[in-house]
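hey can u check if this looks right to u? its 304 residues, i copy pasted from the old doc so theres a chance i mangled smth
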Amino acid sequence: MSFTTIRMGVGRVVLVAGILVLLFIPYLLWGTGLKTAHSQSLLRAQFSVEQHKAGITPVRAPVAPVKKGATPPQVAPTVADPAIGSPVGTIDIPKIGLNMMVVEGTDEIRLQEGPGHYPATPLPGEAGNAAIAGHRTTYLHPFYDLDQLVPGDPILVTTAQGAFLYSVLRSEVVLPTDVAVVDPTPTPQLTLTTCNPRYSASQRLVVHAALTASALAHPTTPVAAVATSKPSHHAPPPPPPSKNWAVAILWGVVVAGVITAVWIGAGMTRSWTRAGILTGGLAIWLCVVFLFFQSLAPLLPASY
């Protein structure tokens, strides 16, 4: 084997590797959203079915917050959390154009499906501090513009128990280890958390909001209840998924095999058929690359 052949082979490997790196960046930023969009569709359908089975008619959103000095808004009774991975309800933030399903759980898998409810906190609408986490730049980046919220901005959360309107109180930036932001509160509140700054997980951006209006699916006596802790009647979240390097390596080999086959096949055919081989091979290669990226992404540090 001549030096020229080796040099050309190394050059092709470096070229393909560079292309893969360039493709992986848009995959993380936009390609991951395909998985989330599919999960969101399934969660919406499941939530609709659950409401129908329970005989619950979706309630209208509260029209206006309670005026100062008026009776506090009704809170929903404390109930068992949905199973991990089940829909909690919808979160709607008009200021940043967000309308998505909230899933139960904040582990890696759940946050790939959409904003996730912290299982150790009350459900939205209940007394105490309900907390929801979401990605900032990947998996449809639900909380991408969370930093744009200012005091007074509305946040509407709709669950099987009703519709609950929150008003932003303040925002803060804390360390990822600061779990006090989801501690119980004496009044009904909503806490949203996400990575900060964008494209980094070195900090957490936290938005605090207060319950200002509610429309219960099954109205009860007005309550200004205080929740000091969430009853431990729900199942604990599952352990983080294991890092499956074998699958990623296998798909990497397939990626290399497909591009090698296309390269050799194109070189052995006449010019009038070469274009067809390259076009078809490229389409197959891109599909395989997508599957490779899907297996590779979970092996990296947590997505932002």
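The domain at 37-216 is CATH 2.40.260.10 (Sortase; Chain: A;).
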